Structure formats: C-alpha cells, structure tokens
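Please produce the structure of this protein holding 5-amino-5-deoxy-1-O-phosphono-D-mannitol.
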Amino acid sequence: MCGIVGYVGPRSAQDVVIEGLRRLEYRGYDSAGIAVESQGELSARKKSGKLANLVVELDEHPIPASTHGIGHTRWATHGGPTDANAHPHLSQNGRVALVHNGIIENFAELRAELEAEGVEFTSETDTEVAAQLLGREVESGAGLVESLRAVSRRLEGAFTLVAIDTAEPESVVAARRNSPLVVGLGEGENFLASDVAAFIEHTREALELGQDQVVEITPDTVTVTDFDGGEAETRPYHVDWDLSAAEKDGFDWFMRKEIFEQPKAVADTLLGRWGSKGELVLDEIRISPETLRRIDKIVIVACGTAFYAGMVAKYAIEHWTRIPCEVEIASEFRYRDPIIDPMTLVVTISQSGETADTLMAIRHAREQHAKVIAICNTNGATIPRESDAVIYTHAGPEIGVASTKGFLTQVVACYLLGLYLAQVRGMKYGDEIKALMDELDTMPAKIQKVLDERQRVLDLAAEFAKVPSVLFLGRHVGYPVALEGALKLKELAYIHAEGFAAGELKHGPIALIDQELPVFVVVPPQGRDQLHDKVVSNIQEIRARGARTIVLAEEGDTDVEPYADVLIPLPRVSTLLQPLVATVPLQLFACELATQKGHDVDQPRNLAKSVTVE
Ligand code: M6R
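Below is the modeled complex.
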C-alpha cells in the first residue's frame, strides 16, 4: 500500500527513483509520481494508472537531470486515483515537494486553517495538507528538518512523509509514525524507502527506524532524531537476500515463482531449530520458560491469509499443549474489548510485519500487559519490533500480492511455537517432539511432490475459466485450507468463492449447490482420522445434488475415489500437517485460472500487498 522512494547521491535521481518504484509496485497502487530539485526549482510529474504511464509522461515531458529526488506509488484513500491526487504534492510557494503513506486523520481541520490563510489546494488528498504546512514552516525561516518535526507534531494518524526543499539541495528528509520507512545506507549516497526492495540493487545495508522519528539523509550522512529533536534509537541491519530474490527468474509471475519456492522456504524456516542438546530451540523467543509456563490462554491475531494460518495453529497448539487458544481477525480484536491479561500470550502473524490492524492489536494487547510473540517474515518490520519476541519465517521476499510461501512458512512457525510450548510446559516427551520435527523435515520433499504432479490442477483451470462461483469445503485443519483456497480465487481470478466447514453444509450452504457449481473438498487422511468418513459422506451429499467434486485426498484413498469427479492426490502426512500439502494445489489453481483470464496475478485489482492503514 503506497510505495515511497527518496534518493540523494551521485546517480540520476530519476533513474534510481523510477527503478525503486518499479520494485515497490507489488505493494499495490493506482497512480505514481516523482519530483526532483534542480538549480533551486522543483519539477514534478504525476500520472494515474501504472508506473508505465509515468514513464511515458517523463519521456514526453522530461524533467531536469538531478541527483536528489522523491517518488511515490499511491493507493487511493482520500480522493480518487487521478493525476491531481497523485503524489508528490508541492507547497503553494513552490519550496517543498512531499509524498506520504498513511492517513492524516485531522486533515480536515488543518485544511480549513490553511484555506483561511489563503492557501489554494489543488487536490482532494489529506497529504496536501502536510505539503502546505511544510511549505509554510520552511518559509518562516526554519530549516527543513526542524520544519518537518513541527509539521509531524501537528499531524494525527499514520504517516510516513518524505520531502525535499529547493533551499536544501543536498538533503531528503522523512518522518515516520505507524507507517513503514527504512533507510538504505550506501557509499556516498543514501536512500529512503517503504521497504528494502526499492534499494536492494544498490545496497544491502539498512537502518531500521522507530516510531515518531525524523531522518535526514545527505550523500554522506544519516541523522535521526525524535519529533522534538532529541536523540533517537535506530538499528542497523544487513539484508540477507539479494536482488535475484526480487526477480521473476524466468517465471511469468512472482506468485508462481513463490509457489515453487515453497519447499525451500519451509526447509529454511525449519533450519537450525533442533539443538545439540536434543531439544527444540527457538532463539528469538525472548520470553522466559517460567513466563511461558504461567500462560493460561493464547490469542492468535492476524489478517487475511495469515489469519487462516492462525486457524491451523489453533488446532495444533491446543492439541499439543492443551492451552485454550482463540484466533481473531486483527481488525475486530481491540474494538470488542477482548479479555486479555498478563497470563495471556498473544501471537500475531504477519508476513509483512506492517499490517496496521495487526500492529494496533499488538499495542492493545501490550497495554493490557499480555506477552506478544510475532511470527513475521520481514526483518526490521514494525510488528516484530513492537513485540516481546519473534519467530521469523525464512520465506525470503514475497512480492506477489497473494500470499503463498508466506502462508506455508507461517503455518510451520506456528507448529514450531506449539511444539516449543509443549516442550517447555512438559506436555510432550522429547521423543514425541522429535518425531514431529522429523515429520516436519519430510515436508519440503512432499510439497515438491505436489508441485511435480501439478498438471491435473492446471488442466482444471482451463475447464473452469468461465464458472461464476466455486465452493471449497474442509473440516478440522482442512477448513482453513478451504478458506484459503477460496480467498486465493477471489483475489486473483475475481470469481465468487466461499470456503465452508464441510459439516456446516447442511445448515445452509447446500442450497447453493447445483449442477454448475464446482466444489473442492479437502479430505482428512484416510484411516488415521475420525473425520475422514464424515467428509466422504459430505462429498456424496454434494454429488447427489449434481455438483462437480474436485477432491484433494491422500494418495491411495480408495473410499473417496468413487465420489470424486477429479481426484488430486496428496502425499501421506499426519492430519495436523496436511495444510502444508493441501494448500498448494489450490494456490496453483488460482494462479493458473487468473492467468488464463488474463489478470495481473502479481498485482490484482484494488489490492495492496501490505495494508498499512486501518
Ligand atoms: O503482511 P500480512 O501477513 O500481515 O498480510 C495479511 C493479509 O493482508 C494478507 O495475508 C492478504 O490476505 C493476502 N493478500 C492474501 O493472499
């Protein structure tokens, strides 16, 4: 959601900014713009639509060469995705250009104040308020950094602001509250961006900023202060993936590449978790075993696909630890006044580590003195930084808007947490935990097998290109898999899709079934699971009403064969681990169907990769 790039150094600012914005396209946006300073004047170009439109505009109406500039991809909130509303916004006096990610909640009163002073606004955005305020501050004689601090103190809501000033051609400044911003540390050049992908081809050294901080970069310096000018704490870190991880590498879509990266992502997330003393180790858990033994409730909070990973986790964690575990959508969590206290362990799951709803849930939980563990894929992101502990998934950068390897590695991290809690609380013997860890270690090869046998699922996509609606059914951990299959189809193929707990079918959804409707069913492993037969009965009920059944079941499941119009075999795994193999065909199906429909799989309409506003 909104991508921001700022650059100062010896290179062409236009080249660095446009390339940086290209690498942030995956975040989701509907207009783009750039501003540079040259010879004491600002030049800006802004276009609605894709970045390619801005590039054409720059070809037709070039801006002067400059080594100092800012750029932005905007995901519209206040005002439609028009050229005028695109960022950067310039102050009326022409002194400053500014880009913004977030929502300025008190923009209406600030706008009224500025209009009363004679400022004429040229857009409908909340952002322009910040640009005009900054223009007024610098005009009054304060330096750019000091002016930005003053503006930041007046703003309410969530914002990353990045600005340049014609009077300070060697600086780019930024302020951050509740929205993402990282600094890229180069040699004789420095960068500001929403995430490291924007500058990874120039430097892998980064600086993580905290809340309510202002940063000034020049070619040779990076200075960070708080909003009052006091000292601020930052954390330098090295990005452990390189440019190739952010390239498609011969695949048509990042999403497809990421689906195929899942065996490695799962293996990397499991790596190094079994210690030399023969026990599960989670180095990043900075909460003492004594505290974890006192926990009497777990609440998992997340959004979208990460929420479904949390649903899988509930089954595993309750089964292994016998600790009551709730799962809640982050945007609902704090507004219902949840019952949490110092004995509650709140587990948040977020691939990006920047999802605003999840972040706000953490803050609420910590205010109630609960302990918070984040499961996150992004080093240095806000969510792990504000949590008591973190378990990093090692999926590498996930660029496709639809989460795939993010999901599988989140599920793995949840298993690790569940087993760790069982170990710490003495709920499982060491050899039981080792047996489960051994089975987890077999999962990358099993996921690979599903990928190798993908052809049947890809063929299905061609058959179903025109269906208006699809159902997904599952029970137990198959239920969140069904929900995830439906979400993938909605977000990529723009097809109406619903996931249901198969047992709920007779309580209403069965009325939807007719001969046109394809129904995917996730069947629990045969013989070892009491729900298997019940799901087979559910499939017969669907078939009796004429629907087409696409059944995902363990290879060799002879009970289900007669009732499957299409059978997608899954490798043998224990029930709790089945989501790691059962989700993959559904990801492939959605990706392929969207491709056949001619959709942009990596950047589906209206979606943003990282939802940084509530
Ligand atoms: O970065 P997060 O894991 O916090 O993101 C949560 C959701 O926004 C995300 O999973 C979303 O549902 C994806 N588009 C699903 O594919």
